[in-house]
Design the sequence.
């Protein structure tokens, strides 16, 4: 507070500065006149009396300066003078100013845009009141936390005393589905939430109310809370919707609330329904739990209590907990960001290299400009200015330049941040993160501008303190030229090294992306249309009813013009996994957790998946036929170990009443979790032979994905397919309509984004490094014009002058490349998790990038070198 008061006092003083100056001048004039009158009284003439008074009075300018120092505001006044002078000097050099501002704008703008993403994901608190009191609670294993399931949540909620409230949520078990009652039927993603969910988050419906305790009990009334976006999109923002009924999965539900427009939770969640958890039912064993700590309770105290609760649960239900299992917690924000934090900091570090290259470039510009101002600086030093005062002036000019570049960079970031946000693939950022510019981003841009101003302003400021006044006033290069040249050369070496690090990182990501595109997915994605249909509700509550709909829908779609074949599966390739336990009859005491797929007979034909052994499913594999199953090559290699697969039997799931199935074929492996991961063991069950309990599991955790092979553009059949499905059931909407090529593109979207982003930074860094080399050599040619003229006058060939100048630049480039390679060998290890099919120290990438950088640097060297060969010796000898 005292500093603020002092600053305010100084600002008030500056407003009345003119009045104080006039009062000081009047007082000095009064004293001078009084002394002159005394001299006249002693017998002097008026002219002699005034001259004697001035001699006796002393240096009036010095007296004014002493008086100003006694006022105590010299620092502020000097700063304002430096700022005004710096701005005036920059206005007189528009070419230099524009080049420096644009260079800084690129560096600051790119860094600020990336920081806005880091800020949204890692630094900005979650968009809930007092978000620091929110904890994620889950089952604790050696490798971290996992979802808990509903029975454990109920036990924890009953036993806990550290939490103000605990809530559970899940996206499965009828959370979303087909919604009717709006403008048209649509598929809506939803969440099942316990009664205290909104209380824990601290956000309540903007219209209506939250769920009651009775509604969250088994058998409670059918109610739902809609998101603001769904309310606006499907119901036109009708405020009278509260209390009205809509149809969700063929069942009436009453809308009791509308969430606020700013509320974000999960990805594309459109509605919330009560969870209705039961102690004896575990609809979703991976349901998530979030809790709000009571005021005054620490994180450590809550963790200690959870460990005690874990032991109580173990004592009550010993068969439901593993020996190594416990209960733990972590900050809720950490739950969302733990998988992405390292990646975001890595990208921010990479773009910081670009900012450093920009700083080095502007520092070189400043040094060249300071060299041109050597005579001006020498004159100021000769007139009594201290070296520190001159250095401070140059630093201030650098700060003015940096702030101008920072302002331009901020405008660039404001334009680029929405574009960057739109390009970020789904899954990289936490679902609650919203990329935008807030005070943290503005503070970062300001701090980056000031720091860069100090960085590139320090070089000319240090050189100014070493100016030889005598040589500078004689218009001679002086002793500072060598030191200045060494510093400029060092900056170029740093630029080249930093650019090489960026280029190597981008090169490794390019190799990674190329390797991914070269991986065979195990199926043919061309000309395949895919979409989802969810059969929720009482009309499709048995396997036979669902199978009949799938059969009729496939029959209609298959007869559309342009359709070769159609099939259905519960999970697409390159989509997230769906595992279930599978028991081989030969080893009934061992259950293997593998991928399970429910498919129609034409699935392998549509996807063009090869059958390696045995046969595929056919029309004879119906419910009355002997139960059969297919496995993939990965399953046979891992679990059958050389045994004949066609002699094996297995059953799917436990407690699903699935009969022993005969393995009738082995199919080729298909990539499931991504092109960069090996194909998992997989089991295929014919759609017509799925029992009711197994079908219920499929419908709870997966959706029916139709795949349609076409003779032309697959998306062109979308409307025709919609008409055929509507003819069977107009209440069933199609969702997630896309081509399989788009599904494949989404599977490598993060790698493509990484490559493009780091590639852009590397390209900018390469360009700035080339400009830096060009600038240094151009300056060297200009400074060495007389020397070049003497060499050529003495008979030097143009080629020798060419390689003399180019060799100077290439020497700096090679030194920078050596430093950059050493740094890359250490830093690229941080990005090993982003690579596929290439090592972090890949020799081919390092060699190729070094060659590229060398060629660009050579081009940048040859331009000023060719200019040097065209120097006229007669003109050069008269240059100085």
Sequence:
């Amino acid at each position: 507070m005292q500093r603020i008061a002092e600053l305010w006092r100084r600002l008030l003083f500056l407003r009345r500065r003119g009045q104080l100056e006039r009062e000081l001048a009047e007082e000095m004039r009064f004293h001078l006149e009084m002394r002159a009158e005394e001299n006249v009284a002693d017998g002097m003439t008026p002219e002699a009396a005034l001259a004697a008074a001035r001699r006796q009075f002393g240096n009036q300018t010095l007296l004014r300066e002493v008086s100003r120092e006694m006022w105590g505001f010299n620092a502020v006044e000097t700063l304002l003078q430096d700022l005004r002078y710096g701005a005036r000097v920059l206005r007189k050099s528009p070419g230099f100013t524009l080049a420096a501002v644009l260079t800084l704008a690129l560096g600051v703008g790119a860094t600020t845009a990336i920081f806005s993403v880091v800020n949204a994901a890692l630094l900005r608190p979650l968009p809930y009141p007092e978000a620091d009191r929110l904890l994620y609670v889950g089952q604790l294993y050696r490798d971290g936390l996992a979802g808990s399931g509903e029975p454990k949540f109920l036990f924890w909620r009953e036993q806990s005393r550290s939490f103000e409230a605990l809530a559970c949520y899940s996206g499965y078990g009828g959370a979303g589905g087909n919604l009717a009652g709006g403008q048209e039927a649509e598929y809506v993603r939803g969440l099942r939430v316990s009664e205290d969910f909104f209380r824990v988050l601290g956000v309540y419906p903007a219209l209506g109310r939250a769920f009651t305790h009775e509604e969250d009990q088994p058998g409670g009334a059918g109610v739902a809370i809609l998101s603001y976006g769904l309310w606006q999109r499907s119901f036109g923002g009708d405020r009278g919707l509260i209390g009205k009924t809509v149809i969700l999965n063929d069942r009436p539900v009453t809308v009791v609330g509308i969430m606020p427009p700013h509320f974000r939770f999960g990805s594309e969640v459109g509605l919330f329904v009560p969870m209705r958890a039961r102690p004896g039912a575990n609809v979703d064993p991976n349901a998530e739990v979030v809790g709000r700590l009571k005021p005054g309770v620490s994180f450590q105290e809550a963790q200690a209590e959870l460990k005690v609760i874990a032991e109580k649960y173990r004592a009550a239900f010993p068969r439901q907990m593993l020996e190594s299992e416990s209960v733990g917690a972590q900050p809720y924000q950490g739950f969302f960001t733990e998988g992405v934090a390292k990646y975001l900091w890595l990208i921010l570090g990479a773009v910081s290299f670009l900012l450093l290259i920009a700083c080095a470039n502007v520092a070189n510009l400043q040094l060249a400009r300071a060299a041109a101002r050597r005579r001006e600086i020498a004159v100021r030093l000769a007139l009594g200015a201290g070296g520190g005062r001159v250095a401070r002036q140059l630093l201030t000019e650098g700060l003015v330049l940096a702030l101008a570049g920072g302002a331009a960079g901020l405008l660039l970031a404001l334009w680029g941040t929405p574009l960057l946000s739109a390009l970020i693939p789904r899954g990289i950022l936490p679902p609650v993160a919203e990329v935008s510019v807030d005070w943290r981003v503005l503070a970062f841009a300001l701090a980056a501008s000031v720091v860069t101003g100090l960085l590139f302003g320090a070089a000319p400021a240090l050189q100014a303190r070493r100016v030889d006044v005598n040589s500078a006033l004689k218009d001679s290069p002086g002793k500072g030229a060598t030191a200045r040249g060494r510093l400029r050369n060092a900056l170029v070496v740093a630029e080249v090294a930093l650019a090489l690090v960026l280029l190597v990182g981008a090169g490794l990501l390019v190799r990674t992306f190329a390797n991914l595109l070269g991986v065979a997915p195990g199926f043919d994605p061309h000309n395949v249309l895919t979409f989802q249909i969810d059969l929720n509700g009482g009309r499709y509550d048995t396997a036979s009813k669902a199978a009949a709909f799938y059969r009729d829908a496939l029959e209609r779609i298959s007869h559309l013009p342009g359709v070769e074949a159609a099939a259905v599966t519960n999970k697409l390739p390159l989509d997230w996994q769906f595992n279930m336990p599978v028991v081989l009859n030969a080893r009934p005491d061992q259950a293997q957790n593998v991928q399970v797929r429910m498919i129609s007979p034409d699935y392998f034909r549509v996807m063009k998946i090869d059958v390696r052994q045995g046969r595929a499913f056919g029309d004879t594999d119906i419910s009355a036929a002997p139960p059969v199953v297919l496995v993939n090559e990965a399953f046979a290699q891992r679990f059958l170990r050389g045994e004949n697969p066609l002699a094996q039997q297995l059953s799917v799931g436990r407690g699903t009443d699935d009969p022993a199935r005969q393995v009738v074929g082995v199919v080729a492996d298909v990539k499931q979790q991504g092109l960069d991961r090996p194909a998992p063991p997989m089991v295929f069950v014919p759609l017509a032979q799925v029992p009711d309990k197994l079908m219920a599991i499929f419908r709870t955790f997966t959706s029916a994905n139709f795949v349609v092979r076409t003779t032309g553009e697959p998306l062109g059949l979308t409307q025709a397919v919609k008409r055929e499905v509507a003819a069977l059931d107009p209440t069933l909407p199609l969702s997630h309509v896309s081509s399989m090529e788009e599904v494949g593109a989404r599977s490598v979207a993060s790698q493509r984004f990484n490559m493009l982003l780091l590639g852009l930074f590397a390209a900018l860094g390469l360009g700035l490094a080339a400009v830096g080399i060009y600038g240094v050599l151009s300056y060297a040619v200009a400074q060495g014009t007389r020397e070049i003229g003497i060499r050529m006058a003495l008979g030097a060939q143009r080629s020798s002058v060419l390689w003399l100048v180019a060799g100077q630049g290439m020497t700096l480039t090679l030194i920078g490349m050596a430093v950059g390679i050493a740094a890359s060998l250490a830093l690229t290890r941080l990005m090993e998790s982003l690579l596929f099919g290439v090592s972090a120290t890949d020799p081919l990438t390092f060699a190729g990038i070094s060659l590229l950088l060398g060629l660009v640097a050579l081009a940048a060297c040859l331009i000023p070198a060719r200019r040097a060969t065209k120097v006229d010796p007669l003109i050069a000898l008269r240059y100085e």
Q: What stands out?
A: The longest helix spans residues 480-517. The chain has a mean pLDDT of 84.
